[in-house]
UniProtKB/TrEMBL annotation:
It comes from the Bacteria. Keywords: Cell membrane, Glycosyltransferase, Lipopolysaccharide biosynthesis, Membrane, Transferase, Transmembrane, Transmembrane helix. GO terms for molecular function: dolichyl-phosphate beta-D-mannosyltransferase activity; undecaprenyl-phosphate 4-deoxy-4-formamido-L-arabinose transferase activity. It holds the Pfam family Glycos_transf_2. Residues 5-166 form the Glycosyltransferase 2-like domain. Its EC number is 2.4.1.83. This is Dolichol-phosphate mannosyltransferase. It comes from Dokdonella fugitiva.
Length: 238
């Protein structure tokens, strides 16, 4: 069984798949036993065909296909459910996350307390448009004030977390944007780690500032309610 599963959700990312696969393999081969789980969210281009062809060059690659488009959070969760590794690393499929940062996250995990179950990437030098950086800055400030998750960047796609802890979290659409708060709600600790950030390799973004804001308001209220209503009780076997 692999020690690590790299989960990558994609929707219409056919040109970004080959270079990102090559970078993942270069970063991890010889360092850790790993698998790569791509989840195709019912792409309308030939992303699925590109992934199928890539299996010949990457024996670590497994492909999960959504029969209907379901969004990034569902793709991540289904990838984690299909994964066999005890720890999961996630990457966005557009190439903006650098797979070379995964070994750094693993090294950070190995020297940290076991209570830390999520290592969240922190894009200290973002390579996005000015409007996107501005919107993200304000969204992070509002989220941090409301949820008190003590995390400077929850939108970064590169993360490392324990599979069992993730699957124990409440599931809802867009949950991937609130993993630090949800992990803390479950009683675990979170550490933010500075990571590289790059321009999109090819294609166009699937989000804009308006649709992020509209779903973000409802999600923030929902997560705040979950935190307020949470209750943890220590147990022992007798």
């Amino acid at each position: 069984m692999p020690a690590l599963s790299v989960v990558v959700p994609v929707f219409n990312e056919r040109d970004n798949i080959p270079p990102l696969l090559a970078e993942i393999a270069a970063a991890l081969r010889g360092r850790v036993d790993f698998e790569i789980v791509y989840v195709d969210d019912a792409s309308k281009d030939d992303s699925l065909a590109v992934l199928a062809a890539a299996k010949a060059a990457y024996p670590e690659l497994r492909v999960v296909r959504h029969l209907a488009q379901s969004g990034q959070s569902t793709a991540i969760r289904n990838g984690v459910k299909a994964a066999r590794g005890a720890w999961i690393a996630t990457l966005d499929g557009d190439g903006q996350n650098d797979p070379a940062d995964i070994p750094k996250l693993l090294a950070m995990r190995d020297e940290s307390p076991a209570a830390i179950k999520l290592y969240a990437g922190w894009r200290v030098n973002r390579r996005d448009s000015g409007s996107k950086r501005w919107a993200s800055k304000w969204a992070n400030a509002i989220r941090s004030r409301l949820l008190r998750d003590d995390t400077p960047d929850t939108g970064c796609g590169i993360k490392l977390f324990e599979r069992a802890s993730f699957l124990d979290l409440p599931y809802f659409d867009h949950m991937h944007r609130f993993l630090p708060a949800l992990m803390q709600r479950a009683g675990w600790q979170v550490k933010s780690v500075p990571v590289n950030h790059r321009p999109r390799g090819s294609g166009i973004s699937k989000y804009n500032n308006l649709n992020r804001a509209l779903v973000g308001i409802a999600d923030l209220r929902g997560v705040a309610w979950l935190i307020k209503r949470s209750k943890r009780t220590a147990t022992e076997e007798v």
